[in-house]
Design goal:
Blueprint: E1 7-14, H1 17-29, E2 35-48, E3 51-65, H2 69-79, E4 88-91, H3 97-106
Antiparallel strand pairs: 1-3, 1-4, 2-3
Length: about 110
């Protein structure tokens, strides 16, 4: 793995594909993330306000670097329609070096 840039995968859910695409395009356009996969067909079961809920959602899988995480998280939350959006960051332990380098290059501050 690249020693100078820690690569992260972020997970976030959205109520629908249009919302996920709007958020994804903004985050990629501003180089906060390199790529977003929008995965439809998700069923989320969770407790909200003391009641178990079940909703169809769309999963966003976002790739970024650790140094871009604070700004990416802040912007994602600002763009998100939920009161409490999911933003979970997972470290990438290893991967295809050219791809990881592309993520790092794509998220450089302009």
């Amino acid at each position: 793995m690249m020693k100078d840039k820690e690569i992260l995968v972020l997970l976030s859910t959205c109520p629908d594909a249009a919302t996920a695409e709007r958020i994804a395009r903004e985050l990629v356009a501003t180089s906060l993330v390199a790529c977003v996969n929008v995965v439809p067909g998700l069923l989320s079961i969770y407790r909200w306000n003391g009641v178990v809920q079940a909703d169809e959602e769309v999963l966003m899988i976002l790739k970024t670097t650790a140094d871009r995480l604070p700004a990416a998280r802040e912007r994602l939350v600002a763009l998100h329609p939920y009161d409490l959006p999911e933003v979970v960051a997972l470290p990438v332990a290893d991967g295809h070096h050219p791809y990881l380098q592309w993520v790092a290059d794509s998220t450089r501050t302009p």
